[in-house]
């Protein structure tokens, strides 16, 4: 019998995650996960054990599900392979509108204290203007000490150098428009710039669902989530984690370092897919946030091979050993190996499968 993890009602839309894994490693019944209601899911595991691969499986399934819109924040370019899939859009170097960031976020983004003159000037510029050019004009014409104006202009020049702000930047409506989903390829950006993009998109997805101006339920999928929960994107991600359920905004976050995520991100996730984790800090972070399920069970059932996972489901208050299914879309996140480079081969799993 197929079980649907995360489900709180009898029927609805779901995606195929894999199969139950018996203690001898053999495959059991199929496992699906619920996409009908909003969820906060966490995918964790040490490097190389399948986090990005599993995220890709979830994105493939979300793409096939009706009524939902996967929006993938891709910091490593691991999801650009979805560009070849019909109904998918890959936006390389996505841009956002300057006024998609609240004034406070501008100070945080530029490392400014909003109570100091330069931060306060940038804050006012962001309040009064809705473009970066407008903010620059505001600062240039401000009645402030010239050193303060100069410092503010220098900080805004840094933001300009990222080339991510544009008056016709991506909106949440555009993010949910493609038939199957959208990938925001931020691999060319530094950490501040990708944080600004994710902050703007996450805030806007939440806003449009509160305003009920889009019908599809967005699923924001964030790889390397520790980089975003530790940056300017954090307040918007926290909002989805703590308040996304009512407007129907879901989050899937993947990280190899659950110990550095805010506790709320771990404790509020209702579906945890844990690949192999060997750092005690990371295992403790999960166990402390979910003592009821994790004590003993995770270490006892520690996955050993890439693609194996322990799935903790809040809806059924249960823990399962699962083998994640194979990808249909080529996985773009595998590491190259020197031996394959020498033989001219790739080690993409899809290529390997085709050959096999
Ligand atoms: N479910 C699976 N089925 C088959 N192979 C898998 C599966 N999951 C992972 N793999 C293999 O393991 C490799 C590493 O997976 P992946 O790139 O997702 O690791 P990761 O944990 O995201 O690592 P990183 O932190 O470096 O991004 C993949 O390239 C693939 O070959």
Strand and helix layout:
Blueprint lengths: L2 E3 L8 E8 L5 E8 L5 E5 L6 H14 L3 E7 L13 E5 L10 H7 L7 H12 L3 H10 L4 H16 L10 H5 L4 E5 L5 H20 L6 E6 L2 H5 L4 H10 L6 E6 L7 H5 L3 E4 L5 H10 L1 H4 L2 H4 L7 E6 L4 E7 L13 H6 L5 H7 L1
Parallel strand pairs: 1-3, 4-9, 4-10, 5-7, 5-8, 6-7, 8-9
Antiparallel strand pairs: 2-3, 2-12, 10-11, 11-12
Helix pairs in contact: 2-3, 3-4, 3-5, 4-5, 7-9
Describe this entry's structure for a reader.
With 356 residues, the protein is of the alpha/beta class. The chain folds into 2 domains: 3-87 and 169-351, P-loop containing nucleotide triphosphate hydrolases (Rossmann fold, 3-Layer(aba) Sandwich); 99-161, no CATH class. The protein has helices at residues 51-64, 103-109, 117-128, 132-141, 146-161, 172-176, 191-210, 225-229, 234-243, 263-267, 280-289, 291-294, 297-300, 338-343, 349-355, and strands at residues 3-5, 14-21, 27-34, 40-44, 68-74, 88-92, 181-185, 217-222, 250-255, 271-274, 308-313, 318-324. Strands 1-3-2-12-11-10-4-9-8-5-7-6 form a 12-stranded mixed β-sheet. Mean pLDDT is 90; it is low at 345-356. The structure holds adenosine-5'-triphosphate. Residues 45, 47-53, 256, 306-307, 324, 326, 331, 333-334, 349 line the site of adenosine-5'-triphosphate.
């Amino acid at each position: 019998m197929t079980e649907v993890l995360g489900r709180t009602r009898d029927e609805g839309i779901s995606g195929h995650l894999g199969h139950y894994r018996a203690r001898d490693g053999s495959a059991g019944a199929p496992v699906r996960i619920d996409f009908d209601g909003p969820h906060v899911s966490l995918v964790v595991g040490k490097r190389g054990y399948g986090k990005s691969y599993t995220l890709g499986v979830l994105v493939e399934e979300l793409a096939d599900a009706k009524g939902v819109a996967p929006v993938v924040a891709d910091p490593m370019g691991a999801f650009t392979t979805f560009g070849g899939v019909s109904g998918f859009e890959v936006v390389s170097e996505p841009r956002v509108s300057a006024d998609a960031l609240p004034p406070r976020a501008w100070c945080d983004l530029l490392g400014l204290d909003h109570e100091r003159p330069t931060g306060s000037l940038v804050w006012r510029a962001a309040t009064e203007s809705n473009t970066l050019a407008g903010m620059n004009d505001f600062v240039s014409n401000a009645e402030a000490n010239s050193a303060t104006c100069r410092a503010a202009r220098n900080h805004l020049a840094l933001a300009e150098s990222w080339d991510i702000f544009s008056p016709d930047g991506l909106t949440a409506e555009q993010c949910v428009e493609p038939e199957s989903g959208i990938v925001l390829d931020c691999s060319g950006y530094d950490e501040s710039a990708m944080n600004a993009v994710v902050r703007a998109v996450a805030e806007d997805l939440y806003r449009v669902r509160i305003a009920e101006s889009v019908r599809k339920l967005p699923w924001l999928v964030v790889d390397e989530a520790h980089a975003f929960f530790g940056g300017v994107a954090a307040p918007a991600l926290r909002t989805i984690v703590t308040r996304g359920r009512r407007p129907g905004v879901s989050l899937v976050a993947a990280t190899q370092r659950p110990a550095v995520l805010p506790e709320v991100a771990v404790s509020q996730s209702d579906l945890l897919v844990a690949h192999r984790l060997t750092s005690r800090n990371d295992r403790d972070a999960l166990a402390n946030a979910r003592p009821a399920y994790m004590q003993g069970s995770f270490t006892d059932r520690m996955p050993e091979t890439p693609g194996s996972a322990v799935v903790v489901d809040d809806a059924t208050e249960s823990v399962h050993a699962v083998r994640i299914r194979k990808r249909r879309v080529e996985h773009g996140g595998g590491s190259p190996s020197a031996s394959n480079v020498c033989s001219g081969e790739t080690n993409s799993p899809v290529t390997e499968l085709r050959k096999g």
